[in-house]
Amino acid sequence: MKIPSESIEQYKEVFKKEYGFEISNEQAYHELHALLTLMDAVYRHINKENYSKLNEVA
User: Fold this and answer.
1) Structural domain boundaries, residue 12
2) Number of compact structural domains in the chain
């Protein structure tokens, strides 16, 4: 998966603000890749019909 360098830099900025220390580009890439893979697995099956059903339950 190709993650734009701008996204990696943004992630590193957020990480530093939250945790108080910097991480490498490689670490940021791996963390973003894991996050995006998880989000894809979770949201892949949510289409408009399923989303509507979720909102009815809430």
Assistant:
1) 5-57
2) 1
Please tell me the distance from the alpha carbon of residue 24 to that of residue 45, in angstroms, as a whole number.
33
Neighbouring C-beta atoms of residue 31, cutoff 10 Å: 15
> In this predicted model, what pLDDT tens digit does every residue of 3-55 receive, in sequence order?
999 999 999 999 999 999 999 999 999 999 999 999 988 888 777 777 777 77
Whole-number Å distance between alpha carbons of 24 and 32:
12
In order of 8, 22, 34, 51, 58, the CA distances from 12 in angstroms are: 6, 7, 15, 32, 34
Query: Whole-angstrom Cα distance, residue 18 to residue 27?
Result: 16
Residue 58 has pLDDT above 70, yes or no: no
